[in-house]
Amino acid sequence: DAGVIQSPRHEVTEMGQEVTLRCKPISGHNSLFWYRQTMMRGLELLIYFNNNVPIDDSGMPEDRFSAKMPNASFSTLKIQPSEPRDSAVYFCASSLWGLDSPLHFGNGTRLTVT
Amino acid sequence: EDKVVQSPLSLVVHEGDTVTLNCSYEVTNFRSLLWYKQEKKAPTFLFMLTSSGIEKKSGRLSSILDKKELSSILNITATQTGDSAIYLCAVEPHTGNQFYFGTGTSLTVIP
């Protein structure tokens, strides 16, 4: 049974470039979450979706960040333009909303912005 | 503002020792508390504690939820080097579907 799949695993880009991170949740899960992890701030929730609808994006740092979920099996997190302070590990996670279901995480994308 | 605090921040023990990790929370309308283990990659799920299940056990790991004290502990007995990881606590409120994470406890088990 495939877990949450994220791509790419690593991304190195220059400041000012656009970055797109991708996520495929576990089949049948109806909630999807984007987290950012750094040493200083730990795991921060950026945005989450229920049934493909964005519910809470208050964690998105600024307008440079955007997320979409066009269907139940795919989501993207875009940063445009990227900055060095965006360097972090970005995790996607999914769960079954309302059924005491834990979060299942992907392996993350390590983003480095130089 | 909802908050999850873990202690200690880091811990170094010898193989065979028993450790206790702490998690305290301030969350409106508590629904569940979860423990995760994170090694080099993604956090992996350990336990979920809800109003109806306040103690869970799996092998050498066990966890208890104290709803009165708004806290939980994670115990690991007879520690092994493979237990070295960051242990994360997360809390889910009834309102919405967020999971609020603490900053984690870094455990190092030395031979």
Describe what is shown at a glance.
The complex is a heterodimer of chains A (114) and B (111). In chain A, 0% of the residues lie in helices and 54% in strands. Chain A is mainly β and 114 residues long.
Helix content of chain A: under 10%
| Main beta-sheet annotation of chain A | 7 strands, mixed
The backbone outline of chain B, from C-alpha atoms, is globular
Q: Which stretches of chain A are poorly predicted, pLDDT < 50 over at least 5 residues?
A: none
Helix count, DSSP H or I runs of 4 or more residues of chain B: 0
Morphology call of chain A? globular
Largest sheet of chain B: 6 strands, mixed
CA radius of gyration of chain A is 13 Å
Helix/strand order of chain B: EEEEEEEEEEE
Q: In terms of topology, how is this protein built?
A:
The complex is a heterodimer of chains A (114) and B (111).
Chain A: E1 5-7, E2 10-13, E3 19-24, E4 31-38, E5 42-50, E6 53-56, E7 65-71, E8 74-79, E9 88-95, E10 104-105, E11 109-113
Parallel strand pairs in A: 2-11
Antiparallel strand pairs in A: 1-3, 3-8, 4-5, 4-9, 5-6, 7-8, 9-10, 9-11
Chain B: E1 3-7, E2 10-14, E3 19-26, E4 30-38, E5 43-50, E6 55-58, E7 61-66, E8 71-76, E9 85-93, E10 100-101, E11 105-110
Parallel strand pairs in B: 2-11
Antiparallel strand pairs in B: 1-3, 3-8, 4-5, 4-9, 6-7, 7-8, 9-10, 9-11
Task: Give me some keywords for this one.
heterodimer, A: 114 residues, mainly beta, seven-stranded mixed sheet, four-stranded antiparallel sheet, 0% helix, B: 111 residues, six-stranded mixed sheet, five-stranded antiparallel sheet, globular
